[in-house]
Design a protein that fits this description.
heterodimer; A: alpha+beta; 10 strands; 60% helix; elongated; B: six-stranded mixed beta sheet; four-stranded antiparallel beta sheet
């Protein structure tokens, strides 16, 4: 004889599609989150992403979006499941099953199959991440640094997400069972979820809130830093909230009211009303898809922006080979290099070298206060700067500039960038050996890409005066030379790079941001220099081929052929990580959109049958299905894409109040990414449309042209 | 068997409260076949749902077999639904994944009984209601009338004090409706069942011993069949409905 458990098992078999849908949604969410978190917490990635750096923050931010998206998605799948389950539970209740009896059965099956789905998702998440990574290594780039390792702690985050999924399902289940009105439970499946009272102003106000959110979120931290002199606390991100509210309002307006009025409103009245009466869940799903698309593009844009800028920078360099080194180093001489050149069949076409001095400069030092605030204090030894005499500058650059005595010029890039990283408020220079000082003031900016944001130019006489008695350790040599067919001199460049590192002493094993003047000032004040405290400041000659070394060594040479060829390898982890994130987010978008569309098909099966009975033509039915499916994919894709593109333009522009050529080129490349991804979304939309048409028995193939 | 005194029930939609039942008083005796009729919005289904303990009520008293339902906890209410009441719904409410026989056995299975006797009782009910041939079929494979007879058999599975039926013929053609009403008569005659049926169909109601007319949430009138012919009683009911609608001066 059958028991209550066996009855439930029979019903489970009958409704296995609903169980499968929920199980797949849970599995997919946990799989994505585990894969993402495995990658995010991987020592391979963490070594490359500087702690507290923008890249790591971006990865975390997109992870937050993905986690919220997957959370909302599984909650939605749970609600859908309980909706299906309501009739059965309602009948049990009506026939006298106690809540405890139903709860026991429901929780038993919920926990068993949800835990199973979670476990499989969690177990396959890391192998999935590994497979995608290996695929990158195979197809795109493979470096020693790309060897992927995983941190078991990543599973803690995945487990937290899994716990959230399971507990939210149980809470939903408890609320579902806890309802006292049996008829409400029985009729749950038939209930629609109309959204009431969407006023005509909802959409326009939503757009306004999006704009306020974008600007507010971006400028509030800037306001904190520049006006309040306060490092923006995490809660300032709340300023982005109007953006989300605005998005929701725009989507609600689109679903419930639409933007077209007049005759066309009646043309789409069926589609529109169906969308409206699946209200809340449709809008929630569209919001999640919009946010995920925005996150995916934010990650996807990283590679083209970084790649375009770096490629253009190396391409535009007027010098093939440039390097600088401390004068007290036993560095390669011109003769040594010429010997290497002849051994490698390379021909030098021009050679220039000069010297410059590293001097202490005064300025306003940022002092941290309690509570995240800070203030500025004047320091005579605020930091170091590379100072070159005007004659040497003219010799190296071919320019003809004249610096007035007591003045200095700052070198920035040809396109004007770099001025924000080149302080010009110095009034006093210090010879770090004799402690002799020189009063100076800013004269002008000079433009030369090879020296941008790193060099200052002094009057020859001033340079002579201030550097008198300066020890060799504060002098540096700068070498520029060009070769024939520089793109074919990779092997020579590699050997020269290695020889320069070999000839550099341990005192030069420093990261680029290590400031010796600041270090001395801190030592003299009895303070600990920050550069000596962080592990991120460590550079090792032993890892001279690593991207960290190539990015951060203070004396790293600039060899065009090397930088061009090694670009992808140097930034491989960065690039691949962001490509990986984009793939994960886009995958989530496609699955959520697909699931939502299938739900629409299941819920509206009867409506389409009725429409058919009312004499609707296949063309009309097809248009109606297409109207709904295109909305689920099209509206979020349009809003998410345009929003993030505009936001990116805003960030690039307000970074330095200008758009450089490389930024514009990067944005054009991002546009190609958008076109590519939009094509994928469109293809998936067509696939989903065909599937839904098949489910509703609407013949799609005959009406493609409509 | 059933006593309803001063029953009040209201619904709140937004900020507006709609009072659906405004003090309903009625009684149903053991073995009686009673119908409740009334226009849309008169409170028929709400009355039935309150007696079924499906929805909570605001005021008044419902006593079933001497047991007051108002203050029962959830477990006790479930027990009342399972042991003392049987239900027949307009849209049958059969579970598609279970066979006809399994659907009939469901109240007993929910009650924890998995004995051979249970299956025997199920088979007997199939026999009484003429659905033995299709007892192993699934709801999707049988007609509307057969579904409703299955639902009647299910309602009687636990030998309840009373069967509550909500528009049981509402979704059926005349032939199937007649078969369902016959099954109620069989239940009353062969199993001494007490039946309380909400309907808007005067034909179905004319088979009942008594018809309670509801209007605007109160009992408007009560008509007894007594020794009358079914047709005559139906005419009487139609006259009463006209009068209630204000068609008769």
């Amino acid at each position: 004889m059958k028991t209550f458990g066996e009855i439930n098992a029979a019903l489970r078999r009958q409704n296995k599609k609903n169980y499968l849908l929920l199980g797949s949604c849970i599995f997919f969410s946990v799989l994505l989150i585990t894969a993402y978190v495995s990658m995010m917490r991987s020592p391979t990635v963490l070594t490359i992403l500087p702690e507290g750096g923008d890249s790591r923050k971006q990865v975390m931010m997109i992870f937050g979006l993905a986690a919220v998206g997957c959370g909302v998605f599984t909650t939605y799948a749970g609600l859908l499941f309980f909706r299906y389950k309501s009739r059965e539970v309602g009948i049990f209740m009506a026939l006298g099953a106690s809540r405890a009896q139903i709860r026991g059965q429901l929780f038993k099956e919920l926990t068993s199959f949800s835990t199973g789905a979670c476990l499989i998702g969690a177990l396959l998440g890391t192998p999935l991440a590994w497979c995608i990574w290996q695929f990158f290594r195979l197809l795109l780039v493979d470096t020693q640094e790309m060897s992927l390792s995983f941190d078991p702690q990543a599973y803690l985050i995945a487990a937290t997400f899994t716990a959230f999924v399971l507990s939210s399902l149980l809470v939903m289940g408890k609320r579902f069972i806890g309802r006292t009105n049996v008829m409400d439970v029985v009729n749950e499946q038939r209930k629609s979820e109309p959204i009431h009272d969407v006023r005509p102003w909802c959409g326009p106000v939503g757009i306004l809130l999006i704009v306020i959110g974008c600007f507010g979120g971006y400028f509030l931290p800037v306001f904190f830093v520049t006006v309040l002199r306060w490092y923006p606390p995490a809660w300032t991100n709340i300023a982005y909230l109007p953006l989300l509210i605005g998005l929701y309002m725009v989507l609600i307006h689109t679903v419930v009211r639409g933007w077209r009025h007049g005759k066309s409103r009646y043309k789409n009245i069926i589609t529109h009303s169906m969308m409206k009466f699946q209200g809340r869940q449709t809008v929630n799903n569209m919001l999640v898809i919009t946010v995920l698309i925005a996150g995916a593009y934010f990650a996807a844009f990283y590679s083209p922006m970084l790649g375009t800028g770096a490629m253009q920078e190396t391409q535009n360099r007027p010098i093939d080979y440039a390097f600088h080194y401390r004068a007290d180093q036993n560095m390669l001489t011109r003769t040594d290099i010429e010997k290497m050149v002849s051994e490698n069949g390379v021909t030098i076409t021009s050679w220039k070298n000069t010297g410059f001095a590293v001097l202490g400069r005064d300025g306003q030092k940022e002092i941290d206060d309690e509570g995240g605030k800070y203030h500025f204090e004047y320091r005579t030894l605020n930091g170091e700067g590379n100072y070159i005499p005007e004659s040497s500058f003219n010799f190296m650059t071919g320019q003809n500039i004249d610096i007035m005595p007591g003045k200095f010029a700052a070198v920035i890039a040809e396109d004007g960038t770099g001025d924000d990283r080149t302080p010009v408020d110095s009034t006093l220079l210090t010879n770090m050996t004799t402690r002799k000082t020189l009063n100076i003031s800013f004269q002008e900016y000079l433009h030369y890409d090879m020296m941008a944001a790193s060099y200052y130019v002094l009057d020859d006489a001033d340079y002579g005066n201030i550097t008198a008695g300066l020890a060799d350790e504060w002098f540096e040599k700068l070498v520029y030379f060009n070769v024939e067919n520089d793109l074919q001199t990779y092997d020579f460049a590699k050997k020269l790079f290695s020889s320069i590192v070999d000839r550099s002493g341990p005192e030069c094993e420093l990261p680029e941001y290590y400031d010796r003047v600041e270090k001395i000032a801190a030592d003299e004040a009895g303070e600990t220099y920050w550069g000596d405290t962080s592990s991120m400041t460590q550079i090792s000659y032993a890892q001279r081929d690593s991207s960290q070394f190539k990015q951060f060594w203070k004396y790293v040479p600039q060899f065009r052929v090397l930088d061009r060829s090694d670009f992808v390898a140097t930034y491989a982890v960065f690039l691949m990580l962001f490509v990986f994130i984009a793939i994960v987010c886009f995958a989530a978008v496609l699955v959520i959109g697909y699931t939502r569309c299938l739900t629409i098909a299941i819920n509206n099966r009867q409506v389409y049958e009725d429409l058919r009975h009312l004499g609707a033509t296949p063309q009309y039915l097809y248009r109606s299905v297409r109207g709904q499916i295109s909305k689920v994919f099209g509206v979020p894709a349009f809003i998410g894409t345009s929003l993030i593109y505009i936001f990116y333009i805003m960030i690039l522009f307000f970074n330095d109040n200008r758009m450089t050529k490389s930024e514009i080129s990067g944005l054009i490349n991002c546009l190609f990414v958008v076109l590519g991804m939009s094509a994928v979304i469109w293809a998936f939309y067509r696939f989903t449309l065909r599937k839904v048409c098949g489910m509703l028995k609407v013949n799609a193939s005959n009406h493609r042209g409509l | 068997m059933l006593q309803v005194k001063g029953l009040h029930k209201s619904y709140k939609v937004g900020k507006t409260t709609y009072e659906v039942l405004k003090g309903v008083d009625l009684t149903v005796a053991q073995g009686e076949f009673v119908a409740v009729m009334g226009p849309s919005g008169s409170g028929k289904t709400t009355l039935l749902n309150c007696i079924s303990c499906y929805i909570p009520f605001d005021g008044g008293q419902i006593t079933l077999g001497g047991q007051e339902l108002k203050n029962l906890n959830e477990n006790s209410l479930a027990k009342v639904r399972n042991q003392k009441l049987g239900f027949v719904f307009q849209d049958f409410m059969l579970l598609d994944g279970l066979s006809v026989l399994d659907n009939i056995l469901l109240p007993r299975i929910i009650g924890g009984d998995t004995s051979k006797a249970m299956e025997q009782r199920g088979n007997e009910l199939c026999e009484i209601f003429g659905i033995s041939q299709m007892k192993n079929k699934y709801p999707a494979e049988i007609s509307g009338g057969e579904k409703q007879r299955t639902a009647v058999a299910r309602a009687l599975m636990n030998e309840p004090l009373m069967i509550l039926a909500d528009e049981p013929t509402g979704n059926l053609d005349s032939k199937s409706s007649r078969a369902v009403i016959s099954s109620f008569e069989d239940a009353r005659n062969k199993l001494s069942a007490t039946i309380f049926m909400v309907t808007h169909d005067s034909f179905s109601a004319s088979f009942c011993d008594r018809v309670i007319m509801l209007k605007d949430g109160t009992v408007y009138r009560c008509l007894e069949k007594e020794k009358k012919e079914r047709g005559a009683f139906q005419d009487e009911l139609l006259e009463a409905i006209k009068e209630m609608s204000g068609d008769v001066a």
